[in-house]
Write a structure and sequence with these properties.
Elements (H helix, E strand, L loop, with lengths): L10 E5 L4 H14 L5 H14 L4 E3 L2 E5 L10 E11 L9 E8 L3 H14 L5 H7 L3 H9 L1
Helix pairs in contact: 1-2
Length: about 150
C-alpha cells in the first residue's frame, strides 16, 4: 500500500517542544491541519504513551505517534515534525527524539499496514538523519517514498 500523500502543511521543521507531550501535540496538530484527524485524536496519541510507555520510539531519534482508529480520524494521514532540540520520551535506548512522525488511520487493517510501511522506510539507516536535516517538504516526501 503506498503511503498517503503528506501535504506541505503536515510537515513542520525545527519545531520547539518542551517535552514529549508537546512533540506529540505538534505531530497531532499537523495531522489536524492536513484534515486527517481532530484534536481529540492528538490527545489519544498522548494517552497511548501515558498508558503503554515510550514504545512509539521505534529507533534512535524517531517516534511514530499514533493511536487506534476511531471517530476522531477523518482519513488516513501522516505528519512529520523535526525538532530544533531533541526531547526525551522515556525510552531506554532510543531517546532523545528529534523526528516525530504522526500516523492516523481509519481502519485497523490500514493502521497495521501504514505503520509497517512507515517502519520499512526507516530500515534505511540514512532515513532518520535525512529527515532531521531536511529543509523542504519535497525532501521529506522523497525520503518517505524511499
Amino acid at each position: 500500500m503506498p503511503l498517503p500523500d503528506v501535504p506541505d502543511h503536515a510537515i513542520e521543521f525545527n519545531a520547539v517542544a518542551a517535552d514529549w507531550r508537546a512533540a506529540v501535540r505538534l505531530a497531532g496538530a499537523a495531522l489536524v491541519r492536513a484534515g486527517a484527524a481532530t484534536d481529540a485524536y492528538t490527545e489519544r496519541m498522548i494517552a497511548v504513551v501515558d498508558e503503554f510507555g515510550a514504545y512509539i520510539v521505534v529507533a534512535p531519534g524517531l517516534a511514530l505517534a499514533h493511536a487506534r482508529p476511531g471517530p476522531d480520524v477523518r482519513r488516513d494521514g501522516i505528519s512529520v515534525v523535526t525538532l530544533a532540540e531533541p526531547v526525551a520520551f522515556g525510552h531506554a535506548h532510543n531517546d532523545p527524539v528529534s523526528v516525530v512522525v504522526g500516523i492516523a488511520s481509519v481502519s485497523p487493517d490500514t493502521h497495521v499496514s501504514l505503520v509497517a510501511d512507515i517502519a520499512n522506510v526507516f530500515n534505511d539507516p540514512r532515513a532518520i538523519p535525512a529527515l532531521r536535516a531536511a529543509t523542504a517538504a519535497e525532501e521529506v516526501r522523497a525520503i518517505l517514498r524511499g
